[in-house]
Amino acid sequence: ASAFVAGWGLPPSARAKIYQKAADKISYHLRRNQQARKSHTKTTRNRLRALEIDVDMLPSCEPTDTS
């Protein structure tokens, strides 16, 4: 939303640069968050494995419908 506001009233070429910069930033953070999630999952599973806890054998919870 802020990129849209920042580009308001600018010539199309300047607006395109602002939008592209915002898209690049979003893309970067999506990749970094994906990598962080993968890394944290791996670390947690290794810690649990060291405690001899088999995550695959734990019961899973299914959310209940509260409507």
- Taken as a percent bin, the fraction of beta residues is under 5%
Total of domains: 1
Shape designation: elongated
- What is the tally of helical segments? 2
Uncertain regions spanning at least 5 consecutive residues: none
Mean pLDDT: 91
Tell me the structural class: mainly alpha
Q: What radius of gyration results from the CA coordinates? A: 21 Å
H-E order: HH
Instruction: Please estimate the helix content.
Output: 55-70%
Distance between the termini: 33 Å
Structural features, described:
It is a single chain. The protein is elongated and about 60 Å long. It is built from two helices and no strands. The model has no long low-confidence stretch (mean pLDDT 91). The two termini are 33 Å apart. The protein has one domain. 0% of the residues are buried. It is mainly alpha-helical. The protein has helices spanning 2-7, 12-50.
In short:
With 67 residues, this protein is an all-alpha fold. The protein contains 2 helices and no strands. It has one domain (2-53).
Features:
2 helices; elongated
Summarize the topology.
Layout: H1 2-7, H2 12-50
